[in-house]
Design goal:
NAD binding; NAD kinase; Tumour Suppressor Smad4; six-stranded antiparallel sheet; NAD+ kinase activity; elongated
């Protein structure tokens, strides 16, 4: 692909801001609408915020690690950036759509690239009913929470909650309970990406629950629907020797 026009964006850290200044002086700076590619400088959290913020621009994003975590990032190097961009592999990801209904009667929608998670807001465990495609699969999950993760997000919060790692291209989602108490033997499920998942909060006044799509939180929810938004495609670029697919595979052997 052509990569002559680049839009650089950086986190607020000092090293990322220094790199931003040096790279823009060397390669120029174009607006997101004019650019062929967006280069994000930071860590994984900043990459997620960049993807959300620049979603309307519909441009591929190439990240370079200048933060604490860089699973979605390439190694930082100033030299040969145009050549790296032109030879990079592009991975397309579909985000999750969260539709949350609140106690106050409102509705909130948000997209998630990594996961949608439900968490108890107080000291009492949450009681949650889980439906898949309109059929009740877990009548009452007693837990600290539950999440739905994409393949790209399966190595993040999902992995910490002992959920499965999903290789890219599997067209699957991970449904993972967080500190489950009952049912005692249920440890989650791997669902087809076409599944529509509905969570109903049981006794939401006594046991309030919040729902979060990546970093966007909605509190005091009574029900949450989650499904893959197939009409939206996010494009991430990786060096051929540093592919996301290979890193997801490697995580299963650590």
């Amino acid at each position: 692909m052509s990569a002559d026009r680049i839009h650089f964006i950086a986190s607020h850290s000092d090293n990322a801001q220094d790199a931003l200044q040096q790279l823009t002086e060397r390669y120029g700076q174009f607006s997101p609408d004019e650019a062929d590619v967006i280069v994000a400088l930071g860590g994984d959290g900043f990459m997620l915020r960049t993807l959300h913020r620049l979603l309307p621009a519909d441009r591929p994003v190439y990240g370079m690690k200048l933060g604490n975590v860089g699973f979605l990032m390439n190694r930082f190097r100033q030299d040969g950036l145009i050549e790296r961009l032109e030879t990079a592999n592009t991975v397309e990801l579909a985000p999750l759509c969260m539709v949350a209904a609140t106690e106050a009667g409102g509705e909130a929608r948000a997209l998630a690239i990594n996961e949608v998670s439900l968490l108890r807001q107080m000291n009492q465990a949450a009681h949650i009913r889980i439906e898949i495609n309109g059929s009740v699969k877990v009548p009452e999950l007693v837990c600290d929470g539950v999440l739905v993760a994409t393949a790209a997000g399966s190595t993040a919060y999902n992995l910490s909650a002992h959920g499965p790692i999903l290789p890219l291209g599997t067209d699957a989602l991970a449904l993972t309970p967080i500190s489950p108490f009952r049912p005692r033997r249920w440890r989650g499920a791997v669902l087809p990406s076409s599944a529509r998942i509905r969570f109903e909060i049981l006794d939401p006044y006594k046991r309030p629950v919040s729902a979060t799509a990546d970093a966007q939180e909605v509190r005091n929810v009574v029900s949450v629907e989650v499904f893959e938004e197939k009409d939206i495609r996010l494009k991430l670029m990786f060096d051929p020797d540093h592919s996301l697919e290979e890193r997801i595979l490697d995580e299963q052997f650590l």
